[in-house]
Amino acid sequence: MAVRGWGRVLSRFLVLGVVLAVLAGIGILYLRGDLNRFICDGACPARYATAPEGVQSLAGSRIMPDEPTDEPIASNALKQAVAGPLSAGSLGPHVGFAAVDARDGTPLAGGDEAAFVPASTTKVLTAYGALKTLGPDDRFSTRVVRDGTTLTLIGGGDPYLSRDRPAESDPVRPASLETLADRVVREVGAGEFALQYDASLFSGPAISPDWEEGYVPGVVAPIVSLWADQGRRDGIRSLDPALAAANDFATLLRDRGVTVSTVAPGEARANASDVALVRSAPVATIAAEFLATSDNEATEVMLRHIAVARGEESSFAGGVSVLRSVLEESAISTDGLELYDGSGLSRGNRISPTTLVQTLVAAGRDRATTATLSGLPVGGFDGTVRNRFAQSRDALGWVRAKTGTLTGVHSLAGIATIDGGRPIAFAVMADDTEALNPLETQAALDAVAGAVAGCAC
Hints:
This protein is of the alpha+beta class. The protein has helices at residues 2-32, 36-39, 56-59, 75-86, 122-134, 177-188, 215-218, 241-255, 283-293, 296-309, 316-329, 353-365, 371-374, 438-453, and strands at 95-101, 107-110, 141-147, 150-154, 192-198, 232-233, 236-237, 259-265, 273-279, 399-406, 409-418, 422-430. It has three domains: 2-44; 75-134 and 286-453, Beta-lactamase (3-Layer(aba) Sandwich); 141-281, 3-Layer(bba) Sandwich (D-tyrosyl-trna(Tyr) Deacylase, Chain: A), CATH 3.50.80.20. A hairpin with a 2-residue loop joins β6 and β7 (236-237). α5 runs antiparallel to α9 (283-293). The chain is elongated, with a radius of gyration of 27 Å.
């Protein structure tokens, strides 16, 4: 009896275990979305999504509709919504604003053609120009070629080439000198070589004459086509990033049994044979990264690539000349536009709010350039706006925007989604705030963005 009793108990536990296992499996399938076709007869729309803990309270009662409405946006309502925030004293005496319907470019508010010091909102233009000129899928190769006993390391302008192979897969930084060294050694074996390095892809000065003294190396590295970790080592930027990268590569080769007799600049002869290469992330990934993190170095590298793609001088001047042409070809206003770099570090740059919003609208019309929009960080969640909009909750999660900040200069440009899933491209700029509290100025910009996102338009 005891044995039979235990058998019944054991069988019940086994049945219970099987049931729990089945339920767990169903739960995993549910979380993975594999059951969506049964639940929703296809992909489940937004109303089926559950917000992560802590996010629901920020989102309020707004829910993205399954299909955005095609209703027009009431411009008068938007003008009334932003009038108060735009008059805030903490924005200073020189304030610009523009807003358009991002679906078709219809002007909604502002649109003053006055140009402002843009700071890092300049990167919106550079991202668009790079994607439009190069395409989203283009990549840049760092190569090694051989001519007898000479190896030449050739920089291809990978803005995120690293020295060491990342411990985990990094979509932004897939290429490393360490990986390249491994591939070279597999091809040439151990031996003695002279190492040349070639950073001739870019021309002109590596340091912009329009940057303030002290920006290099304090804020940005010299812009060259060959570097590793953007010329940084232990947080310190090198004044000669190409030489630093070549020395790093020589060390990696030596660690693998190769004797490197000399390291010197030089260009390979035309008949040199290819040995190995590593490739950068796609342009779309690079653009999204420098928009989200406001990466000055990567942006300036991409400005040079814009010039290279058009066969122009790959310098600051060549890059901004081609960028202006790309904007004009896209029917984007260049009234008042003055550019001296691609990152916005130059105080000589001038961009109007209208140019910024028209660039955002143009980016959404072409699949090749949509990373200009998807790369913008989400308010309150990531990138340079991760800690913004604390007092402007209507913007949290509903605004994607690029920030711009220099001493006395603050700007914000991006896309706000209002009720009905309707997108508004907006830009707000203030460049005479040096005497004001910068945190209060940022909060005032955030209030403008919040007014746009929360507009009952």
